[in-house]
Task: structure prediction
Amino acid sequence: MRRGWLLIPGAALLAAGLADLLGRAAGWGALGPGDRTSPRVALTFDDGPGERTGELLAVLARHGAAATFFVTAPACAAHPDLLRAMGEAGHEIEAHGRWHTHALHLPPWREWAQVQWHPRATEPGPHLYRPPYGGHGPLTRLLARLARRQVALWDVEGRDWTAAPAADLAAQTLARTRPGSVILLHDGPSVTPELLGRLLVGLRERGLAPVLLRDLPPRRIGWREGLRRVRASYGR
Ligand SMILES: [Zn+2]
Result:
């Protein structure tokens, strides 16, 4: 009897691990990179708008580049002027959640509200949702489908949350970038504006044009790409 009770947390852990593997790591069924033969990439910024948004918009304007911002509801409420500035500059604005909370910490009814929230909810779609920390599972995918949202991930991380210098981060990011890549950056870290400037120079040297995510466009992650992602996230 006592051993039976231990099975419950064990099964919950196993389910959480499996959801993490299928959802976050493999990303099967979510949107990932675009056409690998077309010389375009998408630069994406999570977590804004915030104190760094102005600098990012200035760097993008200087290079005549387009980007996609995945914004959260609290950040939009705190900085409506910056949200407007993103849109007026021609950048794409998509959802990063009503709360910046990992899906595993949201009961289903809260995850429904999380997935449904979108800064352009009244405009015609498609509407993309990028889960905080990339954390999502089959339930997220189902809720997104019901809410007419598409889960959008990435294939290259700028790693701008680490303490590494911008030059090193730019070199590592460019080494992993291929045609069709969706590059994950953040609207917040102090290193990101300089990193962005270096990336834009490097992308131009490689003949890769930064476009809005909707113009890439991202493709659904299939079995092969999913396996590659699992290997990259657990085997590196
Ligand atoms: Zn985030």
Remarks:
- Residues 2-26 form the longest helix (25 residues).
